[in-house]
């Protein structure tokens, strides 16, 4: 089943690359509502709901082929557009998928990936012990999403350290917003795209010649450390945590627009 996607075309004709936005776990195309319209003033924009999310909730992945299948579905969405050149912007899970697509997935000759902007995406785990620990953790979360009321699970989910910059009001807003998700669909995505099943991507990214930018919030200590150690070009968003594009949309948009200037 194809993924839901939405194409925004600038009012004026443009030869710019199409900017593809991929949301994070529990998100949807709506997560980019404060970013995409600004970018769409100068670039074509393609918003995609990942499998198990938004209007792609009914799309099912194989537990062991999640990244390959997700990338194939994304490519099918790209082929439905009139464009051949694409810049990917991915947040968290969406960032991991975008990095995998750029480094480990064979694109058809009619598609060119010419840029990559990653927000808070993990490059992967090196040790088998770390992978097993992460897999066990993701399976536990998947079982909770599948078996318990989603609002209860989300309340605990947003207590995780990576979301420590959120205040109680922000947490409650997210719990309410994300409660539209189907628990079994989120469980499926957690199992099939677990960080434990993702290759370590940074070495392949270093070999790539396409422009890349890594973005993270200044309060997101874990991913700021990853950015600093990565040897990639990175930008810190002030007064933001793990979800910088939602917490500071204007600053995020400015950074992204600056990155996109190189294709003008």
UniProtKB/TrEMBL annotation:
Q: What class of enzyme is it?
A: lyase
| The protein's assembly and partners | Monomer.
- Gene name per UniProt: menH
Q: Which SUPFAM superfamilies match?
A: alpha/beta-Hydrolases
Q: Which UniProt keywords apply?
A: Lyase, Menaquinone biosynthesis
- EC number assigned by the record: 4.2.99.20
Name this polypeptide is given: Putative 2-succinyl-6-hydroxy-2,4-cyclohexadiene-1-carboxylate synthase
Pathway given for this chain reads:
Quinol/quinone metabolism; menaquinone biosynthesis; Quinol/quinone metabolism; 1,4-dihydroxy-2-naphthoate biosynthesis; 1,4-dihydroxy-2-naphthoate from chorismate: step 3/7
Q: What does this protein do?
A: Catalyzes a proton abstraction reaction that results in 2,5-elimination of pyruvate from 2-succinyl-5-enolpyruvyl-6-hydroxy-3-cyclohexene-1-carboxylate (SEPHCHC) and the formation of 2-succinyl-6-hydroxy-2,4-cyclohexadiene-1-carboxylate (SHCHC).
Q: Where is the AB hydrolase-1 domain?
A: 19-248
Whether Ribonucleoprotein counts among this entry's keywords is no
**MF terms (GO), sorted A to Z:** 2-succinyl-6-hydroxy-2,4-cyclohexadiene-1-carboxylate synthase activity
- HAMAP family named among the record's database cross-references: MenH (MF_01660)
**GO:BP terms for this protein?**
menaquinone biosynthetic process
Q: Can you name the source organism?
A: Aliivibrio sifiae
The reaction(s) catalysed by this protein are:
5-enolpyruvoyl-6-hydroxy-2-succinyl-cyclohex-3-ene-1-carboxylate = (1R,6R)-6-hydroxy-2-succinyl-cyclohexa-2,4-diene-1-carboxylate + pyruvate
Assigned protein family: Belongs to the AB hydrolase superfamily. MenH family.
Q: Which lineage is the organism of this entry classified under, starting from the top rank? A: Bacteria, Pseudomonadati, Pseudomonadota, Gammaproteobacteria, Vibrionales
């Amino acid at each position: 089943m194809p993924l839901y996607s939405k194409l925004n075309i600038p009012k004026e004709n443009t030869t710019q690359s199409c900017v593809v936005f991929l949301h994070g776990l529990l998100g949807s195309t709506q997560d980019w509502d404060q970013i995409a319209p600004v970018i769409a003033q100068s670039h074509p924009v393609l918003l995609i709901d990942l499998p198990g999310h938004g209007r792609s909730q009914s799309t099912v992945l194989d537990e062991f082929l999640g990244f390959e299948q997700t990338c194939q579905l994304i490519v099918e969405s790209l082929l439905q557009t009139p464009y051949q050149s694409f810049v990917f912007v991915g947040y968290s899970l969406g960032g991991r998928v975008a990095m995998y697509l750029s480094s480990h997935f064979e694109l058809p000759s009619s598609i060119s990936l010419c840029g990559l902007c990653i927000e808070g995406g993990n490059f992967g785990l090196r040790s088998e012990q770390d992978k097993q620990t992460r897999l066990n953790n993701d399976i536990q979360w998947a079982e909770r999403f599948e078996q318990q009321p989603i609002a209860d699970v989300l309340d605990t989910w947003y207590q995780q350290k990576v979301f420590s910059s959120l205040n109680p009001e922000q947490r409650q807003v997210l719990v309410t917003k994300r409660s539209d998700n189907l628990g079994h669909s989120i469980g499926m995505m957690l199992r099939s795209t677990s960080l434990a099943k993702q290759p370590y991507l940074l070495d392949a990214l270093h070999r790539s010649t396409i422009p890349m930018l890594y973005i993270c919030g200044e309060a997101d200590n874990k991913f700021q450390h990853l950015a600093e150690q990565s040897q990639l070009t990175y930008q810190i968003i002030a007064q933001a945590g793990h979800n910088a594009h939602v917490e500071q949309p204007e600053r995020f948009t400015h950074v992204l627009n600056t990155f996109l200037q190189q294709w003008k």
